[in-house]
Amino acid sequence: MIANFAEFYKSDDARNPQEVADAISELIVTPTGQRPLRTVVGIDYGVRRLNERAAPFQRGLLEALGMQQMEQPVSTAKEA
């Protein structure tokens, strides 16, 4: 597993940490109430699809807890 990670970070698929900083900056300037609960940056390994499928359950939980104001679409931050 460690060898696989080492190879990944040597490859062109390795991502620049600046992408995370840029995504955070974008979230900071996004108006309150429009910020997504989750943001995916770079290669998502299927996380975007997982987030989409989990959204109805998340919505129900937030409603049950009276926290529906937190429910926003999951960000699809650009892939590099």
Q: What's the short story on this structure?
A:
The protein is mainly alpha-helical and 80 residues long. It has helices at 2-10, 18-29, 47-64. It is flat, with a radius of gyration of 15 Å.
Notes on the structure:
The protein has three helices and no strands. It has helices at 2-10, 18-29, 47-64. It has 80 residues and is mainly α. The longest helix is centred in the C-terminal third of the chain and has 18 residues, at 47-64. It has one domain (2-70). The two termini are 24 Å apart.
Name the features.
flat, mainly alpha, 80 residues
Topology:
Elements: H1 2-10, H2 18-29, H3 47-64
Percentage of residues in helical conformation: 40-55%
Number of helices: 3
Gross morphology: flat
The radius of gyration is 15 Å
User: SSE order, as H and E?
Assistant: HHH
In angstroms, what separates the terminal alpha carbons?
24 Å
Number of domains: 1
The number of strands is: 0
Main β-sheet, in a few words?
Answer: none
